Amino acid sequence: MAIGKVAIVGLGLIGSSIARAVQERLPFASVSGHDASAAVRDQARELGLCDGIADDPAVAVADADLVILAVPVGRMAEAAAAMAPGLKVDAIISDVGSSKAGVADALAKALPHHIVIPAHPVAGTENSGPAAGFSTLFEGRWCILTPGVDAPVDAVAALSGFWEALGAKVETMDAGHHDMVLAVTSHLPHLIAYTIVGTASELEEVTESEVIKYSAGGFRDFTRIAASDPVMWRDVFLANRDAVLATLQRFNEDLTVLQQAIRRGDADKLEDWFTRTRAIRRSIIAEGQDDPAPDFGRRH
Amino acid sequence: MAIGKVAIVGLGLIGSSIARAVQERLPFASVSGHDASAAVRDQARELGLCDGIADDPAVAVADADLVILAVPVGRMAEAAAAMAPGLKVDAIISDVGSSKAGVADALAKALPHHIVIPAHPVAGTENSGPAAGFSTLFEGRWCILTPGVDAPVDAVAALSGFWEALGAKVETMDAGHHDMVLAVTSHLPHLIAYTIVGTASELEEVTESEVIKYSAGGFRDFTRIAASDPVMWRDVFLANRDAVLATLQRFNEDLTVLQQAIRRGDADKLEDWFTRTRAIRRSIIAEGQDDPAPDFGRRH
């Protein structure tokens, strides 16, 4: 299956990055776009993000071989219904949502006669909107596909090839397992970061100005992901509630154990724990999933 | 008070960075060094970190106008006692420990007849050891001095001037307040990061290999500070126990509130919270305390 035309619905950080990557890396493909916000569509036109930006999603997806929904996971059903009248009968419909089981259900219900293959490129920055995207965002990052058991093999291969052309590495797994894996590697970290940044900004004993001044002691690392898009993340937690709450319970258990070790002055337990966690970072760098430079390569 | 000779006891990340910064920015000062580890002393000699490295701490500090203890906070008393016989009577003794009230007590007890001015440069990376240091580590970062009420004004001014010469901005505060501020901006973030990295690596449902592969979803941000020196951090939590436990309780309250919002599907509460936390990062960047580039400026 050849992908000659790609349509992107939702032109925020991820959608605009896909558009830029297609323009740069797939010169023989055309790319059309739509966003529910007129202001975002105007901005996308000014940025020249696609070959064409349509006001009507059904027009944007007309003739597209691949349609990618890049909207918050809570808006997938609505976005799918709005574009449905324009879809080619054999178009591949995919998405970029951070939770997959709920999205798979919503898309299957909204588009019962189409080929739906949910996907999740594990990449991003803390910035939002069409101007935040860049063509190399997916380079060396993983894109997880969660095709249903009845997904056509050639369509899955075409979608894999598309993401590989954008520089990503592709993995396939069950939607439920995806949601558990991402609860750990992405959703829980965001929840924790959002929590601590809120906590720090509301203490009576320490002013917000002090928190900001002395943030280089570690706090600033958390503020990056706590600056991520609020609507996107609200939807992720609601969509992946069970897996998030399950991993949160495990986190709470471990935090209670360390809290007790601090209260009791159990030096060995603390040192053991802190020694074990060092190894994980080395593996992440060895796998090419983070910058080997100290301090993420921040300028000093 | 002129500082013509600086002695550094402890040649890890911070001590070696001070040595390099003195060599680069204070060409008329000499700098001597000592480390309790013979291997570290050898490495420091190979790196040319100081004008001289002494095997005996009392020899290293002889004639020094300023002595900086850059050892884990649990080892301050021992390090102070070991060098005491070599100290000039009017030397300024300082340190770089991440908690201050306990260190102030330990140094006052170990060196009752000397000028002790505790200090804390709020800077660092996840790397440890003499080779990890670099001369620009303190540039634009804050160094907090916590002089006791009887500290000579000219000695405090001399120490301030020293840190400013190394590129730091200097603030003075009470040791107890320092420990509360740093519990929020540094110690709690490290504890949370150490916890979640441990949690993620021990789940049955998700393999460690999956955690590493998909870490770009947010988890990898936490692994950086969870790769920090285990002994240093063990000592920080033991030394600043009360403030850490107090801020941890506040964090736990907030986490419980967000957990309940997720369980109940309270979309508005989640979105409100996530919107507020965005502003903090903008302030940190505006204050020059983090890199304005997306994703900390990581290479993409």
Q: What CATH architecture label of the largest domain in chain A applies? A: 3-Layer(aba) Sandwich
Shape of chain A: globular
Which sheet architecture does the biggest sheet of chain A show?
A: 6 strands, parallel
What's the mean pLDDT score of chain A? 96
By DSSP, the count of extended strands of chain A is 9
The count of helical stretches of chain A stands at 12
CATH topology of the largest domain in chain A: Rossmann fold
Helical residues, percent of chain A = 40-55%
What does this structure look like?
Chain A has helices at residues 13-25, 38-47, 57-60, 76-83, 101-110, 153-165, 175-200, 208-213, 219-225, 230-239, 241-264, 267-286, and strands at 5-9, 30-34, 52-53, 66-69, 92-95, 115-116, 119-121, 142-145, 169-172. The first copy, chain A, has 300 residues and is an alpha/beta fold. A 6-stranded parallel beta sheet of chain A has the order 3-2-1-4-5-6, sandwiched between helices. Chain A is 50% helix and 11% strand. In chain A, helix 6 (153-165) links the parallel strand 8 (142-145) and strand 9 (169-172). The longest helix of chain A is centred in the middle third of the chain and has 26 residues, at 175-200. In chain A, helix 4 (76-83) runs parallel beside helix 5, helix 7 (175-200) packs across helix 9 (219-225) and helix 7 (175-200) crosses helix 11. The N and C termini of chain A lie far apart (49 Å). Chain A has 2 domains: 5-173, NAD(P)-binding Rossmann-like Domain (Rossmann fold), CATH 3.40.50.720; 177-265, 6-phosphogluconate dehydrogenase C-terminal like domain (6-phosphogluconate dehydrogenase C-terminal fold), CATH 1.10.3660. Chains A and B meet through helix 7, helix 8, helix 9, helix 10 and helix 11 of A and helix 7, helix 8, helix 9, helix 10 and helix 11 of B.
